[in-house]
Amino acid sequence: MKNDHKNHVVKMKKTLCIVLALFTAAITSCNKTLDIDSTRVVGEKNMWNKLEDARAGLLGVYALTRAALSDNDGHWLYGDVRTGEFISPNRQDLKAIASNQLNASYPTVDALSDWTRFYAIINAANIFLERIGDVKAADKRYTENYLIVDVAQVRFLRAFTYFYMVRIWGDVPFITSSHDGKFENQPRESGSKILVWAQQEMLKAAADLPFVYSNNDVQQPGNYYNEDATRWGGALATKNSAYAVLAHLAAWQGNYTDVATYTKFVEDNYGKSGINFQSTEDLTKSNGFFFNKNTSQMFGFNSDWGHIDGSVTGHLEELTLAEPVVNKKVPDIYMPKDTILKIFDLPKDERFSIDTLGQPRTERYFTNINGKYPIFSKIKVILGGVSDPNFRYFTSALIFTRIEDIVLLRAEALAVLGDVNGAENEVFNIMTRRGMGDLTIDSDQDIIDLIFKERHRELMGEGHRWYDLVRYNKIKQNNPAFMKLINSQGIYWPVSRKLIAQNNLLTQNPFWK
């Protein structure tokens, strides 16, 4: 055990060194496009000689992706706080985001308007794809199968990053090569064109990705990088990961025929990746679904306590938790009681419901419901999955998608395509798992409304809500104010003023001019 731990620490140090090198290379080689003042301290020429370099370079792209999503709690501020349903008692920057004042002069708002950290991922991926052949040529241990599987993962992560950026900014610069750090400033490219490319890239990656690593998958035989399946489950993108993200990409494009196809693939094959539906208890307990990594995390980025990984920032808990869950007087954000009761209005809902006297039947999603600040405690992975309120060191995984999300996304697609019975079966699948049996649809119940209400409840706090609202309003088109926001491109974030000042080819989103 001692030697295993020592070997693991050595591998971690090696990976961290390469991550730092990749990050330095990434932000340096796009410094003219993104205007980053930095000095090239590590060259790539000595990084791509052996199998260990490939492993560290691959994990470096994953690490940069996780860092970009969690920086300034961005994944949740973009996806959950912007809707205005969460309120901040004392942070003016969060109040600005919740009220769509995205050009307000606060450091957090400015940082979230800056796409630099995402281009660090893209350039690290570009460097990997350009140099990985050198490893293949130099180290006989690095087999053709390693090359195929590694390239598929990096291509998928690069395409995912572009998809993620397009949802935030719309049009963004499109860069698919490192140019050895010498390429010039580039203008923004059409977001719709980038999404077409990203879809093609993800499909190509999906063809080469295995369902599972180190577990006798025909597309990845043997132990991947000499580690068993427990090391990789939930840590790496699988074929199901790719099709799940493809479903989200197609939904954002409004191409629901593709959504139905991609979600059907995942529903038919999720078990091959060791993915399971989560009970309400497992979803919400401190050592449950969001703890460490597990195969049911269809696509996400873990902070594994066992790998000495975690922080006091970059986790949802930093924003939402306070007394009595942790030793903190006031949460940065909370959901008012009236809002909670409007959302969770079904009496048998295991996630949260109240009795006839106004007392909670269950407090899995919310604690302190009758206090001044109800605490959103669905995700609460403190230390190694314990519940000690004296600590604020978090290790929850950032999950982009899971099987419940995909089932509800399929329901959305079927409803839009006119298969109401199919849509009902999908949404009832999730609602039944949350304690609500004997479900029926009233004649005046709109199936689209039901599906998005259930997505609201099930996926709360997972970064989906803003994008769900955009899709919902594009489908319904009965909210003039939101439709105006869509048509004026106000659904996107402004481009950082700093980036525009430093790159005269960039233009501001029309809504924010």
UniProtKB/TrEMBL annotation:
Belongs to the SusD family. InterPro entries: SusD-like_N (IPR033985), SusD_RagB_dom (IPR012944), TPR-like_helical_dom_sf (IPR011990). Pfam families: SusD-like_3, SusD_RagB. Residues 396-512 form the RagB/SusD domain. Its main location: membrane. It comes from Mucilaginibacter gossypii. Gene3D superfamilies: 1.25.40.390. It is found in: Cell outer membrane. This is Starch-binding associating with outer membrane.
